[in-house]
Design goal:
about 120 residues; mainly alpha; two-stranded parallel sheet; 3 helices; 2 strands; globular
Length: about 120
């Protein structure tokens, strides 16, 4: 949640999986009123959720214009809170390194870490 910087939703896949594939498999009920701000790895999300902002990509034939660069800067400034939260969760090392325990417990342990993170925010 942007106002409180709390972790409100978690979804997991087995092994290494691309973020967008995990999003599609999660079958989240995407409220059309909620705006998603994603990175460039989510190309094609506009077909699933129309209220999405993702950065424009540069190509050899079409370099970015000044307006595109301003737009990308605005999108990245909105996403910085998400990246900071991911960095804070990675300090617990459960998602930063290879998980060597039972997969069955990973979701429980990561949910507890997210709860600890949320608790520390409210202190």
């Amino acid at each position: 949640m942007k106002e409180t910087a709390e972790v409100i939703c978690l979804h997991f896949g087995k092994g290494k999986m691309h973020d967008f594939k995990l999003f599609k498999e999660s079958a989240m009920n995407a409220n059309p009123e909620v705006a998603y701000v994603t990175d460039s790895g989510y190309q094609g999300i506009n077909q699933i959720h129309s209220n999405t902002r993702l950065p424009k990509k540069n190509t050899k034939l079409r370099p970015l214009t000044k307006e595109d660069k301003k737009y990308n800067k605005a999108v990245s400034s909105e996403r910085i809170l998400n990246e900071n939260i991911i960095g804070a969760l990675k300090r617990f090392r459960i998602i930063a390194e290879k998980y060597r325990n039972r997969r069955k417990r990973f979701q429980l342990r990561f949910s507890l870490i997210a709860g600890i993170y949320n608790f520390e925010l409210n202190k």
